[in-house]
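User: Hi! I'm working on a homework problem where we have to compare a predicted structure to a textbook description. Could you give me the structure for the chain below?
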Amino acid sequence: MFKRILQLLYPKRCGACDLPLLESEDFLCTACRIELPKPGLFLKSPNWLSVKFDGLFPFTYVHAFFLFSPGSKVQHLMHQIKYKGQKDLGEFLGAWCGAHLKNNIQLISYDLIIPIPLFHKKFKERGYNQAACIAQGISQMTQIPYCENVLRRLSQSQSLVGQNRVSRYETLSGVFEVADPSVLKGKHVLLVDDTLTTGATFIAAAEKIKAAGASEISFLALAALK
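Assistant: Happy to help. Predicted structure tokens:
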């Protein structure tokens, strides 16, 4: 009874459409769970995701769970995770993504999940790393080991909004470093971030991981811009 009263006074809202949730719903309403655009984690290559990296980095696979577009419900979701303190929503979406990944990785062997890190000042301001929340959810569902501290961000780059892929890559050059190369030796690493636009952040991080001894690197974004 008390829970129902609280729900009436302070209704939980859908992370995508912001409408009140039913008592039986968590994080997302049923309509949004069905309607959010999901391109499919496993697309035949080449595809609109792979062309972001072709010829730039020797990746193995690239995955995206949601299709991102400006002003969309998916953009609202990403905003909630990144700027509104909704770390539990990030972990929930990561687990949802992980459930789909688990059902389709019979032919893929990922050894380690690594999230794109935040600069320590940004982490202190926000209190959490949204990519890490997503990666934790994926790890919980797939049982693939997860390591948050093996990759570090040395500085906070200037805003990447409005920059093309070349400019973004130049901005991110030298931003990342590997703290413990021994963790990566011979591993197939799944690098995880909240969003994928040009792919420059993934490439900058992946080059450091590859140089540290990883055998293969794949990318997974919770949402990608087509």
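For your comparison, note the following. The CA atoms of residues 16 and 32 lie 7 Å apart. The mean pLDDT is 90. Good luck with the assignment!
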